[in-house]
Each structure stands twice: as structure tokens, then as C-alpha cells.
Amino acid sequence: MKAPTLTLLMAALAFSAAGVRAADAGGQEGSGAKTEQCIPIMQIDHTKILDDQNVLFYMKNKKIYKNHLPNRCAGLKASDTFKYKTSQSQLCNVDIITVLNRTGGDFMPGPSCGLGLFEPYTPPPKEEKQATQAPYTPDPDED
Questions:
Q1: CB contact at 8 A, 39 and 118
Q2: Are the beta carbons of 99 and 75 closer than 8 angstroms?
């Protein structure tokens, strides 16, 4: 092998290995956002279910994490509530949530679904309310 070819091959392998290390560390290559495998349960303020595969976790320190479940969790959005059980002080991407279906004044467990990684989330900017003009109505006294 010629020296320039060997150098190019070594550089490509080093770049590839760096990408694997970044992925193993939980980072998202290119986005600058660092995903987390776990978040502390005591820091969770509340959650918001976006759909059957995405949940926002609002933290007490004002951070927001979006959890994109690896698979669709049937009925999650419709029930709008879930529970989790863990023996740790953290909620992690290996943990399971269970959909809670309302039945009268009680809850019945529904499907259980695995969590994904916790990705820092920034809500989109609120759209400015556009001033709407009322249609022109002529004044009857006007001639």
C-alpha cells in the first residue's frame, strides 16, 4: 500500500471510531444535543404526551426532555396518562411505562411500552398572533 493511501485509510478509521465513541456516549452526532439514558425521578415536574410515541418530561430545573419511544405505544395519547415502576432514583431508557385507561373513577392498566433516550427539547417559538381586521361595514348614516 502506498503511504498516501494508508494515511487516508487510517484517517477514515479514526473518524469512524470517533463517531462510534460519540454514539456510545449518548451524544447525537451533528445536532449538538446530548441525549441522556436516565433522568432523576425527583426532578420530574410533569409530563405531556404528544402522541403514541413521544412524551415530554418537564423538569423542575426548567429543562425539557423529549422521549421518543422505540415503538408506538397503543392508546398512550388517548388515555393521556401512564405509570412507571423502577427500583432506582432515575427513570431510564431501559424502563417500561404502562398506559392507564380510565374506567369510571378508577384506572385499568393497558399496554406496557419501553422508553427511548431522553433528548433535550426546546419548544418551537410561539407564533405571533396576527391582527385580524374586521370586514368593512359601511355606516348607514354615511352618504
A1: yes
A2: yes
Rounded Cα distance between 105 and 132, Å, is 44
Q: How far apart are CA 13 and CA 29, in angstroms?
A: 17
Q: Are 116 and 71 contacting, i.e. CB atoms less than 8 angstroms apart? A: no
Under 8 Å between Cβ of 101 and 79: yes
What's this model's pTM, rounded to 2 decimal places?
Answer: 0.66
Question: E-assigned strands of 1-143?
Answer: 38-40, 44-51, 54-59, 64-68, 82-84, 90-92, 96-103, 106-114, 118-120
Q: What residue ranges do the domains of the chain occupy?
A: 32-120
Going from the first residue of the chain to its last (143 residues), give the mean pLDDT of each consecutive group of 10, the final group possibly shorter. Answer: 39 36 38 85 97 98 97 96 93 97 92 97 76 51 56
| The C-alpha cell that represents 49 in the structure block | 404526551
